[in-house]
Design goal:
alpha/beta; Enolase-like, domain 1; TIM Barrel; nine-stranded mixed sheet; three-stranded antiparallel sheet; 17 helices; globular
């Protein structure tokens, strides 16, 4: 048996606001940041994970992760890894910490960071990338990872078993397809709101040349600007190339319907986060009001219950999970099963700091073991900060190449952690 000897944390911030990378209508000056966690053992191994934030408040997220040390330090590791479903339920079930949510917000994301560090160790000890470790589990083992509390009026344990068992045949063939061709991606890199028209046009051309089959534009600050920018993107990409739009929660419900209708001539592939991520019925009203343009959301969905309601209300036609917004791998498996139950494609949120590296594992697991499909599914890609990761995402021909390195892909380089740990201002070694 090995024991956990430390839960180390770091407040890591990158000055992306200086170049307006990541800028949108709601977040004009993001400094992409990571509340970083490392679980260390007396066997000499370690698990790495993080929560993505955008600057101020990253210290609060670090403090939330630190608050979980008492649940972990000094404990034998193997029992935690052998029962990851039980470990998940134990952490989200701390009644005093749960009071801060319940099951949402800073504390819930901190639990996700800890859960993801444990999955990193488990995958590394198995000698497998996370997607392959998960895809190799039996349907019963996968279902044991999920907390079905609050879900059973939409997804029961038996429902989940049937989904997984129906996908079981063909797993090996899909795994070989994945290894050979990767997983489709789309890029948001051309569309940041702070970019000039010239930069938008140049990056859109480059995205098409690189093989991406969809781009995304940020919208929502000024309608005339959005019309001009969308028109320029259409001139570059042509009339049939998919271009999605993302309002980043900027609009009221009625405003969203009017704004998207004003952009309808440009045929948006979907509109993302048109209003508050908590407004399930508002999303449903928008979906009815702008059909056949699709509504997408989920990167700020707090937990599996919000996803359940979005699906039940027919409020979304594209579901966007995030690797670090909910409580880690276990809760995202629940989200993937919900999407499969309702027949809604999952196109994860990525970009940020290391989100591409993290969420690719969930989509690849979904293809092999849950939905069994890549049809209409793609992972967001943003060309930011990959150089800081030990195993950075690899994109070829607009697709994510399948990772083969053991672990969850979230481990940052030691030098990057040291250089970008927050010192009260941006100071670089």
């Amino acid at each position: 048996m090995s024991r956990i000897v430390a839960l180390d944390t770091a407040d890591i911030r990158f000055p992306t606001s200086l170049s307006l990378d990541g800028s949108d209508a709601m977040n004009p000056d993001p400094d992409y940041s990571a509340a970083y966690a490392i679980i260390r053992t007396d066997a000499g191994d370690a698990g790495h994970a993080f929560v993505f934030t955008i600057g101020r408040g990253n210290d609060v997220q670090v403090a939330a992760i630190d608050a979980l040390a008492g649940h972990l330090v000094g404990r034998e590791l193997e029992p935690l890894l052998d029962d990851m479903g039980g470990t998940f339920r134990e952490l989200i079930g701390d009644s005093q910490l749960r009071w801060l949510g319940p099951e949402k917000g800073v504390m819930h994301m901190a639990i996700g960071a800890v859960i993801n560090t444990l999955w990193d160790i488990k995958a590394k000890r198995a000698g497998l990338p996370l997607w392959q470790l998960l895809a190799g589990m039996t349907p019963e083992e996968i279902v044991d990872l999920v907390d079905f509390r609050y879900l059973t009026n939409a997804l029961t344990r038996q429902d989940a078993l049937e989904i997984l068992r129906s996908a079981h045949n063909g797993r090996a063939e899909r795994e070989q397809q994945l290894l050979a061709t990767g997983y489709p991606g789309y890029t948001t890199s051309p569309g940041w709101l702070g970019y000039s028209d010239e930069k938008l046009e140049r990056l859109a051309r480059e995205a098409m040349a690189e093989g991406f089959t969809q781009i995304k534009l940020k919208v929502g600050a000024d309608l005339d600007d959005d019309i001009r920018r969308f028109r320029k993107a259409r001139e570059v990409c042509g009339p049939d190339f998919p271009i999605a739009i993302d309002a980043n929660q900027r609009w009221e419900v009625s405003e969203a319907i009017e704004w998207v209708r004003a952009l309808a001539e440009f045929r948006p592939a979907w509109v993302e986060e048109p209003t508050s991520p908590d407004d399930v019925l508002g999303h449903a009203e928008i979906a009815r009001g702008i059909a056949p343009i699709r509504v997408a959301t989920g990167e700020h969905a707090q937990n599996r219950m919000i996803f359940k309601q979005l699906l039940q209300a027919h409020a979304i036609e594209v579901m966007q999970i995030d690797a670090v917004r909910v409580a880690g791998v276990n809760e995202n498996i629940a989200n993937l099963l919900l999407a499969a139950k309702f027949g809604v494609p999952v196109c994860p949120h990525a970009g940020g700091v290391g989100l591409c590296e993290a969420v690719q594992h969930l989509s690849m697991f979904d293809f092999v073991a849950v939905s069994g499909s890549r049809e209409g599914r793609m992972i967001e890609y943003v060309d930011h900060l990959h150089e800081h990761f030990v195993t950075p995402t690899v994109i070829r021909g607009g697709s994510y190449m399948t990772p083969s390195t053991p672990g969850n892909g979230m481990e940052m380089k030691a030098g990057s952690i040291a250089d970008y740990t927050w010192k009260g201002q941006h100071v670089f070694a």
